[in-house]
Amino acid sequence: MPLNEQPDWVDRVLLPDAGAQPCLDLGRPVDRAALRRAVVARQQVLAGAGMPRGGTVGLRMAPGAGFVTTLLAVWRGGAQAVLLDHRLTDAEVDAALEALRPQYLVTGEDGTPTALPGGRPATTDHVVVQLSSGSTGRSKAIGRTAADLERELDRYARLPEFPGRGERVVLLSSLVHVLGLVGGLLNALHSGAELVLPDRMTPAGVLAAVGRRDAPTTIIGVPFHAELLAGRKAPPPLPRLRRMIVAGELVRPGVAEAFTERYGVPLGTMYGMTETGVIATDPSGRLRPWLDPVHGMELSVADGELHIRMPDSPYLGQTDPTRWSEGLLHTRDAASLDPGTGRVTVHGRRDSQVSIGGLKVDLNEVEQTLTALPDVEEAVVLFHDGAIEAYVSGRDTGPERLRELLAERLAGYKLPRRMAVLPALPRTATGKLLRSAATLREHAAGHP
């Protein structure tokens, strides 16, 4: 169905009622009636600026009330939203605008749209266009329809341990990426949970947000957030904290145990992709390392790579057949499926398998061995220019000592030829470790 002929799914799915129940806490509580009024008002502003049904609107806004109301207003007006992380550089935004050509760009909290020269109306029925996190290279433009989002919300609704009406979600993930957008914002609106964005993204700020109100609370973020919270000494009592759920990359060894020891609640995990949303979950951490596929997700493994049944390509423009072909999304993740239960274990990126002198090396194994060493906080291991390279952050341990410790645990051909120990490793806007060799080498050059 064309974008401008879709039913008003915002009112039907996200805001089916407009009562006094709190739905957002963005520094101040917002109830559903107030949110509905704000969305209608913002929609009138967009219409007054000329936004047509079937139009395209880029959003480059910080997380907050302005972003939420503008996004819902764009959808309610029958237009396509192109989400741009507000932390991107001007050069990155300019490149995205040149490629995607939205007709309007909204920046700032007031949501005033600016018409863009050469902008094009929507040519697909996607209601949202997102850019992948780009941890390994250039981001991909991915579109999702209202029906896609409704199916994903139905999958969340079938997870009994995921927050629902009368509960709170403290969201640490970005609103412009899939976990924060669907698992956080849209699911909270759909399920009746209250979405909380901390005033400050520090351990103290997050814990203050958790303890702000007496209601069962779940924290959603990435493993990096869990590590920060697990390192917090003497946190305040949080009797209403139920669990934390993380996604985006593999959890380092020992982090789940440290988090549970510190807070007395489980660290659950999820696996998903921008292309599909949530794929498999273990909200209570009981299955680790296995995950249960969500409702309606058809998974298979071929040559060690996880494939997902997907009738249509999620990518805008020409599709790379190594990513999607013949109704299958190629995740490029190495995985195993349990034939009895259907559960999946994700081992890491499939391109982590490299050949050194004819011998196979799994870079994930090298990376996990590194991160398990004393005084190592995080590590990225990659293959570049025919050699294994390691980039490590930690405390007072030089590369030669790390190499000695690794040599006690790994065969010689698996050892990195180059190793850099840095104060911290660069991350994407969503908190994932960057895995671009050029970026890491440039970062290391600044910290000889």
Tell me about this structure:
With 448 residues, this protein is of the alpha/beta class. Helix content is 28%, strand content 27%. The longest helix has 17 residues, at 32-48. The termini are far apart.
- By DSSP, the count of extended strands is 25
Gross morphology: globular
- The structural class is alpha/beta
| Content of β-strand | 25-35%
- Strand arrangement, major sheet: 2-1-10-9-11-12-13-14-15
The share of residues in helices is 25-40%
Distance between the termini: 56 Å
Largest sheet: 9 strands, mixed
Number of contiguous helices: 12
SSE blueprint:
Layout: H1 9-14, E1 22-25, E2 29-31, H2 32-48, E3 56-60, H3 65-76, E4 80-83, H4 90-100, E5 104-107, E6 113-115, E7 128-131, E8 141-144, H5 146-157, E9 168-171, H6 178-191, E10 194-196, H7 203-210, E11 217-221, H8 223-230, E12 241-246, H9 255-263, E13 267-273, E14 277-282, E15 292-293, E16 299-302, E17 305-309, E18 324-325, E19 328-337, E20 344-349, E21 353-356, E22 359-362, H10 363-371, E23 376-384, E24 387-394, H11 399-407, E25 418-422, H12 437-445
Parallel strand pairs: 1-10, 3-4, 3-5, 4-7, 9-10, 9-11, 11-12, 12-13, 24-25
Antiparallel strand pairs: 1-2, 5-6, 7-8, 13-14, 14-15, 16-17, 17-19, 18-19, 19-20, 21-22, 23-24
Helix pairs in contact: 2-3, 5-6, 8-9
